[in-house]
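2024-03-11 09:14:02 DEBUG pipeline.ingest accepted 1 chain
2024-03-11 09:14:02 DEBUG pipeline.ingest length=209
2024-03-11 09:14:03 DEBUG pipeline.predict start
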Amino acid sequence: MNYDVIIVASGKGERAKLGYNKVFFRMKDGKTVLEHTLSLFLEDEECRNIIVVTNEEYMKDVPQHEKLFCITGGKERKDSVANGLKFVNSEYVLIHDAVRPFLRKETLEQLKTETEIHKAVCLGHMSGDTVKLVEDGKILETVDRNRVFLAETPQAFRSCDIQDAYEKRKDSFFTDDASLMESLGYEVHILIDEYDNPKLTKKEDFIGI
């Protein structure tokens, strides 16, 4: 499956308390979080273009490669993705958070296979905790956790579908790209991630990596 990937790498790292964009945090091997995230896609021959969306002041720090180019992000994550979608040329596109550097090759291959079949696929994992539905501080009900999945990235789509969705919902708020597609009636399938694929967000997430 030939595809492009949008790597969302904007941000200031405020919750991580680093004082700079957390994608440029150097891990124990000396490589940045962004370099680790990019490596899987740089090695994949089916990945045609890598579109890194980041802050203008950090563009000079993004690694250079013939199939990689940088653009500036927007005010919100959805604005950054919308900017990236303008440069997508392949039939399929993956949208991935730069701060998920532990994605496995096996998972990427599964995602590509499922996307060719279903056209819209969200990577995720099952909730290991009991889930409560709450309103005004009061528990309304306990939700069957076997039906609760926590969304991850990459999320993968047929390019024309997600581009159309962003155009139609450009003034709406949504928490991830799958929820945008759901709002327009697209059927989005879940792919269970069998490996640890955390999003590095808080200060403690960067300890020991």
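2024-03-11 09:14:41 DEBUG pipeline.report Strands lie at 3-9, 47-54, 68-72, 92-97, 120-126, 131-135, 138-143, 149-158, 189-192.
2024-03-11 09:14:41 DEBUG pipeline.predict end
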